[in-house]
Write a structure and sequence with these properties.
two-stranded antiparallel ribbon; 466 residues; Nucleotidyltransferase, domain 5; elongated; six-stranded mixed sheet; binds zinc ion; 14 strands; 3 domains; alpha/beta
Length: 466
């Protein structure tokens, strides 16, 4: 397939490097990845093939010469490794499955543990069924789950499946207060709503710590009952909010109507939508809908109502729920869970991390001007229009530097050693220095305001390899 694209452009003319990158990620990789998220056998070979394909395609993106290192080329082009790309594809598949577990029949077994002991089914390269894969995974789901363990600190994450629920009408009370109303006005409005619903008020909240740990909390008026639950790092704040609602429903007195007071419009909307459509996206949402239905069947249609309150408005109950949710993020992880959104979020974090850690010019070089890009790749790979390289392949007799005439003209010499480089700009002493984002960017100002100058780009665009 790559061969067909050869006619479209090369380093001298035609498709730009950035377009090539888009063709690669959008089309070639999409085709190469197709179906790979289902198969679990033979993936090592697949990975090798994929790497080769990626290498061929990306060489065009960065205008690299023959024989450049695979990792370097991928990094310069700013695309992730085949492994991460596959992980992401599988994460997307699992995300879909978690929303609707019927999609693949018994490929996954919805017992809430993520295990597939009953089906014991596995797909080989030809789409046939096997019992258990050599890795011991019974499904892609269990494999993904075990990979997700890389991200967890302790405890056993559980996949939080969504699924079908019975339809439920969930009443929402519009409180007689505005976002900018004072706390007293809100308190009065809440009291009115409670009397109207003849309900006990319970405040709920969700929270996420900086390290990604999510918690949910609930606080019953007067503090008679309160609590918090930790969800782990594979959930979203939204999941924390819903978990708080679940806690509130399970903890509230069983013979009393309940008014759930949440500061998350998204969480309230999700509960109402799940009741209306009969589809819940996560397990907590399923439990919430079941709980509402159970209370309605005993206490009537107003057994559970929801009301939105403004956050950070000195409302005592709301602040307490916020505190409990925050405290929960420091609790021992008893039964953390993996939710669809949390999984996506975690994978995003992981991909960004890969970019950051392995950042040899990654993501940044593609934005450089063409001349800087070409020179950088030639210097970093040591191959291209460099005397030492040309000497090696028999194209010149003299390997010495054309600028200073003292040492062999290697990429390293040009970029890091040659005295000529000192005349044209900032000197870096190592490739790591060269690739360090923060240190080699400079803010400058003109009549339009501040802009950033990439000193490494400037440096390479001034080098003339001729
Ligand atoms: Zn020199």
């Amino acid at each position: 397939m790559l061969a067909q694209f050869n006619g479209l452009g090369n380093s001298q003319w035609g498709i730009s490097a950035n377009s090539w990158r888009q063709i690669y990620t959008g089309m070639i990789r999409a085709i190469a990845l197709w179906g790979s998220e289902l198969g679990w056998r033979g993936q090592r070979d697949w990975e090798k093939d994929f790497e080769q394909l990626q290498y061929q395609a990306l060489k065009k993106c960065v205008n690299a010469t023959h024989g450049s290192k695979i990792e370097l080329i991928s990094q310069i082009a700013g695309v992730e490794s085949p492994r991460i790309a596959l992980d992401a594809a599988q994460a997307r598949l699992i995300g879909k499955l978690m929303r609707d577990t019927t999609a693949l029949g018994d490929l996954i077994f919805d017992d809430g543990t993520g295990r597939n002991e009953e089906a014991r089914r596995e797909w080989d390269d030809f789409g046939q069924e096997y019992t258990v894969s050599p890795d011991g995974f019974t499904s892609v789901l269990t494999a993904i789950q075990s990979k997700a363990e890389v991200l967890k600190e302790e405890g056993h994450e559980r996949i939080s499946y969504g699924g079908r629920v019975e339809n439920v009408e969930v009443p929402e009370v519009k409180l007689q207060a505005q976002a900018d109303s004072k706390a007293e006005v809100w308190t009065e409005a809440i009291n009115q709503a409670r009397e109207f619903c003849k309900a006990t008020g319970v405040y709920t909240d969700g929270s996420m710590k900086e390290d990604g740990m999510v918690g949910g909390g609930w606080y019953m008026e007067g503090g008679k009952r309160q609590g918090g639950v930790t969800l782990g790092k594979l959930a979203m704040v939204w999941d924390g909010e819903v978990c708080g609602v679940r806690g509130a429903l399970e903890d509230a007195p069983s013979e009393s109507n309940v008014l759930i007071l949440s500061d998350s419009q998204a969480a309230i909307a999700a509960v109402k939508k799940a009741g209306r459509t009969g589809k819940a996206r996560t397990n907590d949402l399923k439990v919430v809908i079941k709980g509402i239905r159970e209370r309605q069947s005993r206490l009537g249609p107003n057994a559970v109502s929801f009301g939105w309150v403004k956050a950070h408005n000195e409302l005592h109950g709301n602040e307490e729920a916020d505190r409990l949710a925050k405290e929960a993020t420091n609790l021992y992880l008893e039964n953390p869970q993996i939710t669809e959104g949390g999984l996506k979020q975690a994978w995003k974090r992981m991909r960004q991390e890969e970019r950051r850690v392995k950042g040899a010019g990654m993501g940044r070089v593609v934005k450089w001007n063409r001349k800087a890009r070409v020179t950088y790749v030639q210097c970093h790979t040591g191959k291209g229009n460099l005397q030492a390289w040309r000497h090696k392949i028999g194209k010149t007799d003299d390997p010495k530097c054309r600028k200073c005439g003292r040492y062999a003209e290697t990429g390293k010499h040009i970029a890091l050693v040659c005295t000529h480089a000192e005349d044209i700009g900032q000197r870096c002493s190592t490739w790591e220095d060269m690739d360090d984002r923060a240190r080699w960017a400079k803010k400058e100002k003109d009549e339009k305001g501040f802009y950033t100058v990439d000193l490494v780009e400037t440096f390479f665009s001034k080098i003339d390899l001729r």
